[in-house]
Structure formats: structure tokens, C-alpha cells
Design a protein that fits this description.
The structure is a single chain. By secondary structure, the chain is of the alpha/beta class. 24% of the residues lie in helices and 21% in strands. The protein has eight helices and 21 strands. The chain is globular. The chain starts with 30 loop residues before the first strand and ends with a strand. The N terminus is likely disordered.
């Protein structure tokens, strides 16, 4: 049975319905926003293999490669489609290799263990082969669980229950499966345990079952380290939710103009951190829009400051490198009304994404993976490449250009520097710079004249421009 099409457009909502990453983006300064008066951009900082056939042959990879910027494969990717289109897409991915993340079940992968001890790794093998062939640093997200681990029938896969958590009596079985997968792909060193705590929400107590998740996490962590102590493991992969300022269930320890961090999300992080058997990094995902109402406060660009604030808070609480497994900036459409997700122009979308990435990098995130909303058809807002199911598919799209260039110019370890910025009255221009490159983003929907790093620029609406120093 083929895996279903799952959440191709982006953020999943079901839950609420070699390096370890220690080479963080080091920042001295700067992301800057300028107005009518000249200023220097300001810093953000503050306080044998069982079943499934033979495993594909691994390729050698430089030890200590750090995840940095990358993306997550979803239902459709570059491993299937028209031959010329897949060739173009794989060429695109090979030109400037990024970190690539794949789930072990769903999102393009089949049920890896339909019945106890009976494995099916064909689809996962294909995705891993794609990551290897394109020179990626591969990451696996250990989610979801075979049906028999969550009350289903052995040998059957009910894809409508993909986001159910394994039953507690099968936590050890899931950890064992994680070990089997780690042995099958011995060149993969980075593992995320579960995804958004799917299936772990306690409706009666109106909070996450962080005790159950942490029990599962610790078993998986121990098994992966038993397979190879060099394996790097992180959690809790909770959604970093927030509500508008002064509304909802916010925690007083983390808030900003964008809103108040959800107390339930903070509780997950603190419990997991206090009771984890070990961790090589802490991982979350989240959006710049509010949990309810999907509002970007005070606006879609300024709301991205949340990513920086949450990153710094996570580092303070856990002392670990911070990974963002997913991040989102474009609110979903409500009731089929225009203007939500897919309602922005590609220029608008890319500009907001660029500013979000600036926040993540300057605040010291160690890894961030773009959720690639790849589709089979022609219409694909925010996708990295044109669908490989089309004869003329596989060509690079604007978000891929941004992600690839950003990863190249600002890899982990980048030391950001100041850049002088001025612009016309009422205009806001965002800047991120190191010794070699400057990224400039016009956040306005009108043309803006600006002076950046001593150069006069005429920026088109929502233009993203790179300068060299």
C-alpha cells in the first residue's frame, strides 16, 4: 500500500487538533532594520540486515560535517518522476549539497516494519540513496510507528493513523526498530526522535504527555548510542507555539512583541531536559504566526523575531545546540479565504523567509530544515524545484536559490559583522553580513532606495539581494 499524501503544503496540525551541531552560528552582530536615519545594524544577541533486500552501499562522508541549513523531504521529491526532470533536480541538489532530512514512515516512506520482524525498506532506501547521491548530510526523523505498535493489525497499514504514538508497551519495540535502521544506514549520524509529539497530547489534562514521550526518547537514545556512540540524537521536537501578547496560556519567561510562548511547549522542554538520558542537541519547530488565529504580530517580518528569542531561550535552558526541524512564516488560509498560505506572491514569501533565516542564524541556531512542500502538479508555492512529475520539471525555484545561497554564505561558524544601512523615510530594509557577504531584504511592497555598506541600491518590492564585501 502506498504511503498517503501528507501535509504537502507545510506545517502539520495533527498534534494539536559530523557534527553534533556544536559549531553554532556564532554572532557578534547583526541583523539590521533601517529607516530614514542612517544607523549601523544592531545585534540580536542577549542574555547482516534484516528484510527489505540488501541495504544500499553507503558513501564516504567527511567526518564532523555539521547539519547547518537544509530541508525535509515530503511525499513528493526528486527520487521519482520524468527522467530528465529527476536528473535536473538531482543536479540542483548536488551543485551545493545541503543537509537533507527524511522520516522513516510517511512523507514518502512506507511502513518499515508492517509486522514484527518483517521489514520493508525499499522506499526509505530510495530516499537515503538520493541523499547520498547528491552529497547531502543525511538526517533521519524517527517517526511514525508501525500499526501493530499502536493497536493496529499486524501486516496492515492504516495511514489515517500515521500520527498516532506507539503504545507504551511497544516503546521498546520502537527503540529496537530505530536500532535496526541505524545499522542499515551506518553512514547516517543524525537522528530526531519523533515529530511534534504527535499522539502524545493528553486531552484530559490539556497538556502534552511529556513523561511518555521522554520515556520513549530515552529508550531510543540508548539504543542508538548502543549501535554507535558516534550517533547524534535530539528531541523533544515540540511545536514552539505562541499566542498574542496577553492572551492564551503564555509563560512569563518568554515573550516579545510577537506574543507569549505557550506554557505547554515550555513545560515539554523543561521536563525533557531534566529527565533525558542524554542529548546531542535540542530540536523544536514552529511558526511566526500565532497558535490560534494565525496572526503575525506586529507584522509578518517583525514576527520572525520569535525565532531568535526562542533559540536563545532554548540555549539558556538546555545548554545544547539548537535545531529547528521546521519553520513557517506564511499563515494558512482560513475557510478557503484568499490571502493565507499560497496567497502571497513568490517575492513576498521569499523575502519573509529570508528575514526568518536571518533571525535563526544570528541568534545561534545550529541547524534549520525547510519543510519542502513539493507537489506533483504545476502549482507549487514555496517549493524548492518544479515538480519532477512534469516533463519540464526539476528546475530551481526561488526558495531553493535562497536556501542554497544562504547555506553557502552563512554556514555554521559564521561570524557576523556590522554594516551601515540607510533608506528612505518609512522604509525598512533588513541586513545580515559577515566578512564576505551581505544579504539585503526590502520588506516593503514598494521600491526602496537604500545605502548599504557604502553602496547605493535601488531595491524592487520585496527584493532579496546579495552583495559581496
Amino acid at each position: 500500500m502506498m504511503a498517503p499524501i501528507l501535509d504537502a503544503v507545510g506545517r502539520h496540525e495533527a498534534a494539536r487538533s559530523t557534527g553534533s551541531g556544536t559549531g553554532r552560528w556564532q554572532f557578534a552582530v547583526l541583523v539590521g532594520a533601517c529607516g530614514a536615519v542612517a544607523l549601523t545594524a544592531l545585534p540580536l544577541a542577549m542574555a547482516g540486515r534484516p528484510g527489505g533486500g540488501a541495504a544500499p552501499k553507503p558513501v564516504r562522508r567527511q567526518e564532523g560535517a555539521r547539519p547547518g541549513w537544509g530541508f525535509t523531504h515530503t511525499q513528493y521529491s526528486a527520487d521519482h518522476g520524468e527522467p530528465e526532470a529527476t536528473r535536473r533536480a538531482t543536479g540542483l541538489l548536488s551543485a551545493r549539497p545541503l543537509t537533507q532530512n527524511q522520516h522513516i514512515m510517511g512523507w514518502g516512506a512506507e511502513n518499515p516494519e508492517p509486522a514484527p520482524g518483517r521489514y520493508d525498506f525499499q522506499a526509505l532506501d530510495e530516499r537515503v540513496a538520493l541523499m547520498r547521491a547528491t552529497g547531502a548530510t543525511p538526517v533521519l526523523t524517527l517517526c511514525g510507528a508501525p500499526d501493530w505498535m499502536k493497536g493496529g493489525r499486524k501486516g496492515r497499514t492504516d495511514w489515517s493513523r500515521l500520527e498516532a504514538a506507539p503504545d507504551r508497551r511497544h516503546y521498546k519495540d520502537f527503540a529496537r526498530l530505530a536500532g535496526v535502521i541505524a545499522r542499515r544506514y551506518p553512514d547516517i549520524r543524525h537522528f530526531l526522535v519523533w515529530n511534534e509529539l504527535k499522539g502524545f497530547y493528553d486531552e484530559r489534562r490539556r497538556r502534552w504527555n511529556y513523561e511518555g514521550y521522554t520515556e520513549l526518547y530515552n529508550l531510543v537514545y540508548a539504543e542508538l548510542k548502543r549501535q554507535n556512540p558516534a550517533n547524534l540524537v535530539g528531541g523533544p521536537y515540540v511545536v514552539a507555539d505562541h499566542d498574542p501578547p496577553g492572551e492564551g496560556n503564555g509563560t512569563p519567561e518568554l515573550r516579545g512583541p510577537w506574543g507569549d510562548f505557550d506554557q505547554r511547549s515550555a513545560d515539554v522542554v523543561r521536563y525533557w531536559n531534566a529527565h533525558r538520558a542524554g542529548a546531542d542537541f535540542v530540536v523544536v519547530d514552529g511558526a511566526s504566526y500565532t497558535r490560534e488565529g494565525h496572526r503575525t504580530i506586529p507584522d509578518e517580518f517583525a514576527a520572525t523575531e520569535k525565532f531568535a528569542d526562542v533559540t536563545r531561550w532554548l540555549r539558556h535552558v538546555t545548554g545544547l545546540p539548537v535545531w529547528w526541524a521546521e519553520w513557517y512564516v506564511e499563515p494558512p488560509a482560513e475557510d478557503d479565504r484568499p490571502g493565507g498560505r499560497d496567497g502571497w506572491s513568490e517575492q513576498h514569501r521569499t523575502a519573509v523567509q529570508a528575514v526568518a533565516m536571518m533571525r535563526l542564524a544570528a541568534s545561534g541556531a545550529s541547524a534549520a530544515f525547510y519543510w519542502n512542500p513539493q507537489q506533483a502538479g504545476d502549482d507549487c508555492p514555496g517549493c524548492l524545484w518544479r515538480s519532477t512529475r512534469l516533463h519540464d520539471g526539476g528546475h530551481e525555484l526561488p526558495m531553493a536559490r535562497l536556501l542554497s545561497r544562504f547555506a553557502h554564505e552563512f554556514p555554521p561558524g559564521s561570524a557576523f559583522r556590522q554594516a551601515a544601512v540607510t533608506s528612505g523615510a518609512g522604509a525598512r530594509v533588513e541586513v545580515l553580513a559577515d566578512d564576505a557577504a551581505v544579504l539585503v531584504v526590502n520588506t516593503e511592497h514598494w521600491p526602496v532606495a537604500a545605502r548599504v555598506d557604502g553602496r547605493e541600491l535601488s531595491l524592487a518590492p520585496y527584493e532579496v539581494r546579495w552583495l559581496t564585501r
